Amino acid sequence: MLTIDRLTLQLPYYADGYTAWWKRRWATCLDAFSLTFSPGEVHAVVGASGAGKSLLAYAIMGLLPTPARLNGQLYYQGKPLDASRQRRLRGRELALIPQSLSALDPLVRTQRQVAWAAQRAGQPSAHAWHASQQALTHYQLDARAQQAYAHELSGGMARRVLTAMAHVSQARLVIADEPSVGLDPHQRQRVLGALRELADQGKTVILITHDLRHALPIADHVTIMRGGKLIETAPSSAFQGSGAALTSAYSQALWLALPDNAFATTTISRREQETNVA
Amino acid sequence: MLNAHRLGFRFSPDTPILEDISLTLKAGQWLGLSGDSGAGKSTLGKLLAGYLMPQTGYVTLEGAALPKNGVQPVQWLPQSPELAVNPRWRVAKILREAWTPSDAQCQAFGVKPKWLSRFPQSLSGGELQRVCVLRALAPEVRFLVADEISTMLDPITQLELWQALKQEAQLRQLGVLVISHDTALLERLCPQRLHLSGGQLKPY
Fold first, then answer.
1. Does residue A257 lie within any of the structural domains?
2. What is the pLDDT of residue A278?
3. Which Pfam families match (chain B) (predicted)?
4. For residues B132 and B115, what is the distance between their CA atoms, to the nearest angstrom?
5. Is A265 part of a structural domain of the chain?
């Protein structure tokens, strides 16, 4: 459904200190990244902060800052996904549930915002209003929450509003960027369950997260990223026991560092980190 | 010994958040605190650290009230480090606000020298969290309240942060109250655990 073929992304930065501070340098944020996402599947993309997970989402949506240097190809349903096609499909076929709750308009009531999302996806306004109400009810937001402003919502409610916006757009590819950060177990279960439901309807869901443990129960495949590189893509069933089914040392280390596993740094991860620093 | 005696707190007159909470944290003790969001975990943490004043009851440190000025011996570590630093200060100034950590301590917490000349916005959440934790470990500090400090970190970074903190706490016999949703993490870190719900503390 979505294929990423050797995507390389570079962003400019300026050196600090006094040597050639005027000179623009390029930091490689994604390095020859290739991956395929299929419909009906939740595909988790897991990595530490700074691994380039969110940038991957922006690259797919075409929301990168202008001076970015992008190489490689994206294919959506077999056809190349270029900037103009991204603009056309964004909000209709491609939806992003952003990481920051500040993505909600602070001056607009919840239901109006969701109706706008439906209208942007091409629904007539009367229908959009109805659809927004339905979607919000579906995500268990009551009449009071539907008429609330963003600052009156709790973190979990705001996440569900953002999910409802992706839901009404009837997008076929939904990218959720860290949807479970800062939620208690009950709320997290609801938000992740909503994503699983979208995938069960035949949509493609990309779940970007650092929270490997809670991504596993709902994900079909897990891709581990590090420093802009793809380390490994494994079925989520590979993450069990001592992680022997995992092929790379880094994903094993990530798995074993979880508190319900060994909660220990393996010698491999230490060694790898030292070489990384050098 | 940090003592909370029959604390009560409410934000609005008719809905109490905490009622009659008593708690003791000894030097060198790791105590876990769990609870649903909105249960009042952070409020309790802030009461213990003197960020909020209880409406009933009191907090004592070695039998005396918390000091009004100077370095606070009970430090509260917040969930969002970006809200706990001055965005116009460079990292070096932030880190050295109360004391100057040694190079070895910086290394143990993974604080890299090249961050020091930067502004906090250019560090990631996990990097800034490590700066904030190290900042709070001034020699006068006896107790820490760690309020969800590792939720935004990936497993390896989370583990390294706790290992560094554990080592430092062991060395100086710091008492630590760990607030988290993550029961597995609490089981790993804290021999004693409490659960907060309906304004009451229960052993977990």
1. yes
2. 35
3. ABC_tran (PF00005)
4. 13
5. yes
| pLDDT value of residue A122 | 87
CB contact under 8 A, A154 and B158: no
User: From B80, which residue of chain A is nearest by alpha-carbon distance?
Assistant: A182
pLDDT at A175: 95
Contact B155 A181 (CB under 8 A): no
Contacts of B143 (CB under 8 A, 6+ apart): B2, B25, B48, B61, B73, B74, B75, B174, B175, B176, B177
The pLDDT of residue A137:
92
* pLDDT for the residue A41: 94
Chain B neighbors of A253, CB-CB under 8 A: 156
Residue A18: per-residue pLDDT:
66
Q: Which domains does chain B have, with CATH numbers?
A: 2-84+125-203 (3.40.50.300)
B151 touches chain A (CB under 8 A): yes
Tell whether A154 is covered by a domain: no
Whether A6 is covered by a domain: the verdict is no
Q: Give dist(CA A40, CA B167) in Å, integer.
A: 46
User: In the predicted model, is pLDDT for residue A35 greater than 90?
Assistant: yes
Query: In the numeric block, which tokens belong to residue A61?
Result: 């949506």
